[in-house]
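Throughout this chapter, every protein is written as a compact record of paired, labelled lines. An example of such a record is reproduced below:
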Amino acid sequence: MKELLRSTDPTILAYASALLEGEDIDCFQMDVNMSVLEGGIGIFPRRLLVREDDFEAALRAMRDNDIPLGRD
């Protein structure tokens, strides 16, 4: 798995996940349960991972839809 997107905005993550699902690209959200540590204030970013084989197609889909990747 390879990190595609990192964000603290749950709407971006939901939109990106739905977009990838529409493109038949499997994705997985990491750090979803970090709210237990942060107290639910949303300061820790969540990561969206895809398979390495799907990474280029997923990256292209994110860029084509102007989704900020939020990673270095």
